[in-house]
């Protein structure tokens, strides 16, 4: 199998995993992957039902959005993915869902505060919510600008330490070293968003010790990480 | 297959899809479809368990509610469906559920505010909640008047741009170009109602930029829509 | 099959339906049925795992709680069921669950207010919550007194029009003409409790028009009921 | 089968039961069991996907954490389990999950108050939440100190009467006479946490009669317990 075929298979399986994890309904959601050496991004086609979709339906484009291979139109969110790949050089996959609790925090216009180790195991700080876009931004190149505003929101934050964002009044984008890791981070974001919403209803003044945050993140991701089989 | 048989099959499958999407329990819920040229409406029979129901059990009536074909009594909500078909000339299907979060907003007597793009992708504005009915309306032709009050609520709103409503203290009705699209809009309404309830618990002062609303709705439904395979 | 065997089968199936509807976990919950002519009550055995339970494990007792047939000990809640059968002469089955939202309202010590037609279709008024029991009542014949306090709570209310109750700090009991109808009312109570909790979080000042309540209840249960196939 | 093989099988099945009960996702969660006579603890390996895990992957260690048998690294939470086994002499199994509602209460930094008989049937009092750990504790032997702080929280409480705890900003640990009973207590804790969160949203001033608490706990666990087949 060529590396393009292999990437199409990976991206297809990552898209199907969104369904398996209950993160998308209807035709919502999309996952992409990038072949950095070739400068090729593979992404879900737009609006195709998951139960009819096949690996060969995945669409290959270059980083300017020109189609390289595939019969179908790429996801309508493609331009957002491309901005993320250009700005965040270490990422290998991007996922976008309208998962229920992640979308609810985005609709509330609130970042998900870091108040638990479940969150700290994967994200080293709050999952930020982007600012409102202006009329000009919305009426211009909307999907590209959505990506630009995500990158602006990150500023000096390390996207490998906070592998996800809430787009205000919209929903989450997550990323990772591969399409599968981007999906895993969507799973974690939704669970953390759910725990956070319930915790907020119990106690709106949540807080968590910074030392505990750092410990949990580094236990899994620091130079001396000791979680897993190493 | 005659067009009536075909419509009965479509309506049956749309009713079963309500169960598959987890929107109804017991014998709750009903979907209908209309054959505009023939003036025939096909609807679920009243109170029949979903696991015993067959396509041939669907009941065909005319727009005045006279039975055209079928052995069973039509849904007790039939008169509401008929008012909607008469008032909203472009719709081809109507669905009614007591889906949990949609019904909760109706019990709260509140319209579902437009605060996210998931909502804006299918509904161009808030999903309105009807007014209280009077004693005379309730004790008169209740189901017909339920439809009249929905139509009154819509006033100048475009029912194809806001394909659903909450009947106060009751539950949602949705519609679309076909029975299947009416069901899809029930799925979206329930998901939007759930996201909205969680967002409301996080932040009761929700808002969304009008430009973003318009952008998302038009991306899928405007003259220059670019979502899907076109 | 003798009528006792038939009743054991009905009660067994009703108990298994609690599991199927997601209303019980572990060994929680119990359903019974009564053969009025014979004065025999058939009930689930105490603490037997659902996946090992068989129809022949159901226990038959008389209205004083003496065992008539069966090898196992009857449910620890048996005495509550017996009080209900003696006080509410028209009921043929009783169900008890710790269903999540029903139990939550009971823990909140609040009746479930009637604010929607889903509720009014099966219960003609609020689902009442019992009073606190005294120390003497709790330390005496606890399960029997639980039944007495339910009956006291009902006073002049018609138990066939309000086929369920919340025992304060405990959970729901429901009943109906048969074990299956008691289970159906547990399903409705849990759904109504869930809708009510979400509606309460959206708007704590809920209300519903009395005329609408009466209309919906009578549409299904009044002398001129017109729901279902008649 | 040797007793070590038998314990590995029990611990493996208890870990898989966490998945079956919906209490863990990804590689989260872990269960262990102890062979008291031999001083051997058997625990889940760290970070192994549940769908690839086999009974033979379970790791055997002594109470000082030295590996006795097994190819894989034990769970990163092993040191917490060992502290619990040393301090709580009657327990035979420990379970740790990030179950949604249990974790939410831990993130809220709140004990789960005893407000229902579902809770009282298994826990004789509130499920306590531990205190914040200090910087030194977090940066030192973190997992061991997590166990120490649980033991400190218990003080004079009887761990067999309150078989679980919330670690602040983290999640629940539960225990029992066996690995299976520890898992059962995780199931109960999550359900009680869910009921408690909903009850709290309905009425933040919850309370429950002490006599009722004692009655329910003793009905199942007291010297005159009468629940189950005895």
UniProtKB/TrEMBL annotation, chains A, B, C, D:
An example Gene Ontology biological process: pentose catabolic process
The protein's Enzyme Commission number: 5.1.3.4
Entry annotated with the keyword 4Fe-4S: no
GO cellular component terms, semicolon-separated: cytosol
SUPFAM superfamilies for this protein: AraD/HMP-PK domain-like (SSF53639)
Keywords assigned by UniProt, alphabetized: Carbohydrate metabolism, Isomerase, Metal-binding, Zinc
Class of enzymatic activity (EC top level): isomerase
GO molecular function: aldehyde-lyase activity; L-ribulose-phosphate 4-epimerase activity; metal ion binding
Domain of life, per lineage: Bacteria
Cofactor(s) recorded in Swiss-Prot or TrEMBL: Zn(2+)
Domain Class II aldolase/adducin N-terminal stretches: 9-197
Catalytic reaction equation(s): L-ribulose 5-phosphate = D-xylulose 5-phosphate
Family label: Belongs to the aldolase class II family. AraD/FucA subfamily.
Descriptive protein name: L-ribulose-5-phosphate 4-epimerase
Organism: Aquisalinus flavus
Upper taxonomic lineage: Bacteria, Pseudomonadati, Pseudomonadota, Alphaproteobacteria, Parvularculales
């Amino acid at each position: 199998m060529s590396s393009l075929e292999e990437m199409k298979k990976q991206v297809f399986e990552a898209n199907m995993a969104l369904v398996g994890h209950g993160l998308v309904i209807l035709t919502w959601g999309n996952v992409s992957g990038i072949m950095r050496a070739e400068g090729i991004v593979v992404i879900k086609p737009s609006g195709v039902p998951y139960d009819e979709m096949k690996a060969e339906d995945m669409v290959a484009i270059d980083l300017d959005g020109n189609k390289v291979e595939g019969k179908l139109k790429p996801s309508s969110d493609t331009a957002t993915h491309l901005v993320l790949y250009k700005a965040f050089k270490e990422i290998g996959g991007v996922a976008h869902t309208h998962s229920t609790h992640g979308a609810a925090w985005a609709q509330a216009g609130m970042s998900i505060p870091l108040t638990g180790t479940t969150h700290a195991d994967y994200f080293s700080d709050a999952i930020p919510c982007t600012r409102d876009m202006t009329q000009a931004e919305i009426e211009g190149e909307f999907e590209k600008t959505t990506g630009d505003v995500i990158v602006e929101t990150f500023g000096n934050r390390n996207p490998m330490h906070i592998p996800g964002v809430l787009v205000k009044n919209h929903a989450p984008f997550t990323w990772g070293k591969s399409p599968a890791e981007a999906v895993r981070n969507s799973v974690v974001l939704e669970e953390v968003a759910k725990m956070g919403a319930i915790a907020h209803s119990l106690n709106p003044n949540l807080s968590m010790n910074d030392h505990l945050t750092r410990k949990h993140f580094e236990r899994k991701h620091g130079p001396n990480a000791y979680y897993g089989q190493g």
